[in-house]
C-alpha cells in the first residue's frame, strides 16, 4: 500500500543552471508522469509485487494521463481521489549536463490527501505501508499510524524532507533518508558535517526501528538492532539521478512485501537506484525485476 503523490514532471535540460536574474536556454524539454507516490508504486509493480496507490489527481488531461499510466503498469488505483477543485500536481525539473537536478513541486490535488482518506483504506491484504513527504504531513503521519495499527511493515521515505514529530517516527519501522535528509530530521543544516552512524543513532533514539540511509554512489547503510551493515552500489554511468530515490524505496518495499529479508531488500534497492541513474526521465528509468536481478548477479 502506497500513500503518496502524483505530479506531472516538466523537465528542462541545460548545460548549467542560471544564477539569480539570469536566463539560459534549455537544450531539451519534455514532460511526463512523476510524483514520489506514483513512481514508487510503479517501481513496486515492476519489481514484481502487487501495488495499490492512494493519491489524488485533478479533472484534467494530466489526471487522465495518470489513470492511463497506472492501468498500463498494473498499479491498483481504485483508492485514488479524482476530480475536485485542484488541478493535478506538477513539478519543474532543471537538469544539468552532469546529471544533477533541481526540482520545484506544485502539490495541486495532492493537498486533498488527509487522515480521513487514509482511514478509509482497506488494508486486510497488505503487508507493507509506504509513504513519503510530498503530501500533507497529516496524511503521511496517518499512513504510518494506520500501517502500524494493521500490523504492516511501515516504510517512510522522508522526501522532500521536513522536521517530523516523534510520534510519526515511532510508527516507522524503516526510514530511508539520504545524508542531507537525515541531517534535517535530526535538527541540523542539510550540509552539516556529522557522522553517518551518529545520525542513524539519533533517529533510532526518537523511535525509528531501522534506518536505511542511502549514500548515492557509495550504496546504503543499514542501522538497526545489530551491527551496522554497508551495502555497496554497482558502478554505472550516471545520466540522470532524478528517479534513484524512488527506485530504491519502491524496490525495498516490493522485496519485503514478497517475503524477502531486509538485507536482500536493500541489496536489490541499491541496484535499482543505480539502474535508475542510467536513463533519462523517472518512469522510463525504473527497472524490472529481471533487470535488477541480472545486475545483482553480475556483481557477484
Note down, in words, how this protein is organized:
The protein has one domain: Ribokinase (UDP-N-acetylmuramoyl-L-alanine:D-glutamate ligase, 3-Layer(aba) Sandwich). It has ten helices and 14 strands. The protein has helices at 36-46, 61-73, 115-119, 137-149, 166-170, 179-185, 196-205, 244-257, 262-276, 289-299; strands at 2-3, 7-14, 28-34, 53-54, 56-57, 81-82, 89-96, 101-106, 128-132, 153-157, 174-175, 210-214, 220-223, 229-231. An eight-stranded mixed β-sheet has the order 4-1-9-10-11-12-13-14, sandwiched between helices. The longest helix is centred in the last third of the chain and has 15 residues, at 262-276. The mean pLDDT is 95.
β-strand amount = 15-25%
Count, helices = 10
Rounded mean pLDDT score: 95
In CATH's first tier, which class applies?
Answer: Alpha Beta
Count the E strands: 14
CATH T-level fold name: UDP-N-acetylmuramoyl-L-alanine:D-glutamate ligase
Q: How are the strands of the biggest sheet laid out side by side?
A: 4-1-9-10-11-12-13-14
Quaternary status of these chains?
single chain
Low-confidence stretches: none
Largest sheet: 8 strands, mixed
Q: What distance lies between the first and last C-alpha atoms, to the nearest angstrom?
A: 32 Å
Helix content, binned percent = 25-40%
